[in-house]
Design brief:
Blueprint: E1 9-15, E2 32-33, E3 36-37, H1 38-48, E4 53-58, H2 63-73, E5 78-80, H3 87-92, E6 104-109, H4 117-129, E7 132-138, E8 147-151, E9 154-159, H5 166-169, E10 173-182, H6 183-190, H7 206-213, E11 218-222, H8 234-254, E12 272-273, E13 278-279, E14 284-285, E15 290-291, E16 296-297, E17 302-303, E18 307-308, E19 313-314, E20 319-320, E21 325-326, E22 331-343, E23 348-360, E24 365-366, E25 371-373, E26 383-385, E27 390-391, E28 396-398, E29 401-403, E30 408-409, E31 414-415, E32 424-425, H9 437-450
Parallel strand pairs: 1-4, 1-6, 4-5, 7-11, 12-15, 13-16, 14-17, 15-18, 16-19, 17-20, 18-21, 19-22, 20-22, 21-22, 22-23, 23-24, 23-26, 24-27, 25-28, 26-29, 27-30, 28-31, 30-32
Antiparallel strand pairs: 2-3, 6-10, 7-10, 8-9
Bound molecules: uridine-diphosphate-N-acetylglucosamine and magnesium ion.
Length: 452
Amino acid sequence: MTENSPQSRAAVILAAGQGTRMKSPLPKVLHKVGGRSMLDRAIDAAQGAGCDRVIVVVGNHSPEVRVAAEKRVGADNVVTQDPPLGTGHAVNAAKHALAAFDGAVIVSYADTPLVSAEVLGKVFELGRRADLAVLGFEAADPGAYGRLALDGDQLEAIVEARECTPEQLSITACNSGILACDRSVLFSLLAEVKNDNSKGEYYLTDVVGLARHRGLTPRVCFASEDDVLGANSQAELAVAERVWQDGVRRRFMDAGVHMPAPETVFFSWDTQVSSGVTIEPNVVFGAGVAIDTGAVIRAFSHLEGAHVGEGAQIGPYARLRPGADIGRDAHIGNFVEVKNVAIGAGAKANHLSYLGDGSVGASANIGAGTIFCNYDGYFKYKTIIGERAFIGSNSSLVAPVTIGDGAMTASGSVITRDVAPGAMAIARGQQADKPGWATAFRAQKSAEKAGK
Ligand code: UD1
Ligand code: MG
């Protein structure tokens, strides 16, 4: 579809509000749900709904939001609203950027993190059958939301709560804030919006009444309240997180992931889990994790930027950091940290180790307490362990170092040179035995104590 086709879609995402209710040095729309910022989520949804152009409206008060938006949509598609004079005024800030665009424009907010591409798609579809399409929802507690004044399925007006008559306040059909409209119609309606209301702001919502006045047909479709949850405060953000986590847990279980206590497992926006995986209680997934079928992630493990191969076992109490690539049927046990290491098929590191930067060959065995000494305070170095190698407990492997296939290191060794395939390296103090020494020592000390 070209930009000039009548079917073209664009989005205007409003992100210029101050977000004061978050009470945070981090701008509201950069707060995350499922490990992804609300701004990124809004852009994802717009792009997922087929928007060729995505315009983000930012304020001058948060340069970080501008930087984040430019990274996603390019500087040409980030426009400034300064000062913020209302939602209608904010959409109008995108007028120039969309001057050459011919098609349908959807307006959405960067602080409604659970709005999906599917929901936006539904509003666009309604927009083909109406002059103006508004997304509404039935509010359990309509509070400060704009009320939908409906006549059948025709929308007569959106009335902001502050402007409602007592009768209108009892309406539970509310405005989500999302609407779609032909670009030229939208901006011509916005040109008529006035600020003669109790807040002295230019309300986007006034375009509905203005459209009716022109004899146009605004219509409404509905989403669930959860779909359009707004996150304006830390508490609301936590509600959005819970709703999102519940949804993704349900989707994974429906796809055949076994979780005996799903409410204790936390996923990221991009977590990939195959069917036939078991995830025990209290597991946390940071960004960038993929788990292959048959793997078991045992209790209290934390994973980010990691891939877990088929049938592998992780934890309990394991930590996989970015670049951990765990091979098929490998075992990573309790209190083992793996960072930027490929672990070969069937290899085992079952207890108390730090494996950072390098690789472990298939079927190697890493003894308890093994440390890859990968960092000298300036640079990082690699530890390469061959297939079937056996690393004795409490070995320190001082990188860069290579342990050959089938080689062994003796327990307690500090290995500073490469070990040849099939060799055994021992690097520790010699053992000296003193027969009878302990018995004599105890006898002497007991006598001393008795004499006091
Ligand atoms: C708005 C709607 C209301 C709806 C509610 C849904 C209007 C007038 N009211 O009210 O009908 O029920 O959302 O949550 O539209 N923003 C700007 N510039 C501004 C003002 C706001 O970019 O000058 C942005 C904010 O960052 C936010 C969004 O627009 O992302 C909504 O603004 P907000 O002040 O939260 O509107 P509400 O009063 O909640
Ligand atoms: Mg709001």
